[in-house]
Amino acid sequence: MSDLTRKTAAELAELMTSGQASSVEITQAHLDRIAAVDGAVHAFLHVDTEGALAQAKAVDDKRTAAKKSGEQLSPLAGVPLALKDVLTQEGVPTTAGSKILEGWKPPYDSTVVKRLKAAGIVILGKTNMDEFAMGSSTENSAYGTTHNPWDLARIPGGSGGGSSAAISAYEAPLAIGTDTGGSIRQPGAFTGTVGVKPTYGGTSRYGLIALASSLDTPGPCARTTLDAALLHEAIAGYDPMDSTSINQPVPAVVEAARNGDVAGLRIGVVKELGGEGYQSGVEARFHEAVELLTKLGAEVVEVSCPHFEYALPAYYLILPSEASSNLAKFDAMRYGLRVGDDGTNSAETVTSLTREAGFGAEVKRRIILGTHALSSGYYDAYYGQAQKVRTLIARDFAKAYEQVDVLVSPATPTTAFAIGDRIDDPIAMYKNDLCTIPSNLAGNAAASFPCGLADEDGLPVGFHVMAPVMRDDLLYKVGAALESALAEQWGGVLMTKAPELEVTR
Questions:
Q1: Which is the catalytic residue, given 183, 204, 245, 409?
Q2: Taking the CA atoms of the chain, what radius of gyration do you get in angstroms?
Q3: For residues 200 and 89, what is the distance between their CA atoms, to the nearest angstrom?
Q4: Which position among 159, 245, 324, 409 bears the catalytic label?
């Protein structure tokens, strides 16, 4: 593996600024790494070799010109990135992990992609995901399962397993994910990487292929807290193209990541997120992380959020309901797959045949569930009640933040499980998101940071931090403090370093 692929995004940026490496060299090193190991990992659905190298050369040329003009390039200019295949990128295949969009090349860039390009960040390609972000293991992709770089027989989490696996396997230093119920944070926990769900509305949804419009949030994935903060700053901010975008300044996330001082910070351990059903190694690492933060001067108390236990059933009524509405546009008439259009079938038959062939089992399950929840006679009993529970969960957060600055819990109840272990048990699969879903329902900021390895299996454990709306900086303050303390405890070895993966299939 090239020394360049071992570097953090911040280190790569320094190498380019000092003239010790070019973006073309760095990009080529990561493309070579993808070629070497992605046959085993399957993090990518599309690698844009030609486009990435062209972007890299453009940044190098701009940097050369800037030395003469004195222009300042963005902090991440020239750094490569992996993009979840749910965000549109003009002229690049975008499938959302579904056969129904196979071969579709969007005619426009999403706002996130526009901001990546404006920052000079090089997009290596599109990463694998559960179909339309419906899943917790990346086993629901129509294009095959992604494997966890820590153990290729295990899942990398979902729905954004491809993005987290790519950075864990050193195929990219940065990645973009989207988080609807934990799809950035849960894969981050399972792969020993940093995954951040910004405040809902803090990053634009324009050009994001919608799953659940009141929940979807694009966010950064990285191997270090500082790298995630730098990427967060690059993509965040108000967007008039998104009606839910928040018109406020981006929180000082980079400053918080560089500071990492938690002295006097009030931290609440959520009583309801732990105990029965949680793997002992996960709880052990979590409590050790809390103790580390206490030693750094944080004030830790237990906090009760009684309605969190209802978050999972409420979420699995709200999300399918919004999904059934959002996915109605895939009708075989405008773009994507079309089946049965032989001149004899009606438009309704073509639509039906196309959806039967193009949607996977989990997508069909959630569409049926959501359509039923929204149907006459059931709307108030199911969807309406779920929205009331959502309000109660938001009130739990508000009450908790009157007592503490941030809330913490394990990111997931267990470490990564074996591929195929839960694919036929939807309820067991849904329980992966017990800790992450409340933050999506309330819209507040949340993140998972690596906090060690479970004793039972040697696999990564995630430390989950939740902060109030538009206080995303507090996430990075805690993450940076924990990362620094763990590095010192482990003799300078960050827990984000996955075992060497030098196999090719």
A1: 183
A2: 22
A3: 22
A4: 159
Active site residue 197: no
Residue tagged 């694009």 (tokens):
218
Q: Rounded distance, CA 324 to CA 97, Å?
A: 17
Chain segment 369-403, per-residue pLDDT in tens: 999 999 988 999 999 999 999 999 999 999 999 99
List the catalytic residue out of 7, 23, 84, 141.
Answer: 84
Tell me the three state secondary structure of residue 260.
coil
d(CA 284, CA 64): 50
**Maximal C-alpha separation, the chain:** 73
H/E run at residue 218: strand 218-222
Cis peptide before 159 (omega within 30 of 0): yes
Query: What one-letter code names the amino acid at 104?
Result: W
**Cβ–Cβ under 8 Å, residues 474 and 467:** yes
Nearest to 467 by CA among 434, 491, 438: 438
pLDDT in tens, 151-194: 999 999 999 999 999 999 999 999 999 999 999 999 999 999 99
In one-letter notation, the amino acid at residue 248 is Q
325 among known catalytic residues = no
CA dihedral angle for residue 368, residue 373, residue 374, residue 375, rounded to 10 degrees: 80
Write out the E strands in 230-298. 266-270
271 has catalytic annotation: no
Strands 406-410 and 266-270: parallel
> Residue 492 pLDDT > 80, yes or no?
no
Nearest to 454 by CA among 280, 338, 325: 280
* Domains defined along the chain, listed by start: 3-309+390-489 (3.90.1300.10)
Q: Helix (H, G, I), strand (E, B), or coil: what is residue 126?
A: strand
User: Could you tell me if residue 309 is left (phi over 0), alpha (psi between -120 and 50 degrees) or otherwise beta?
Assistant: alpha
pTM more than 0.85: yes
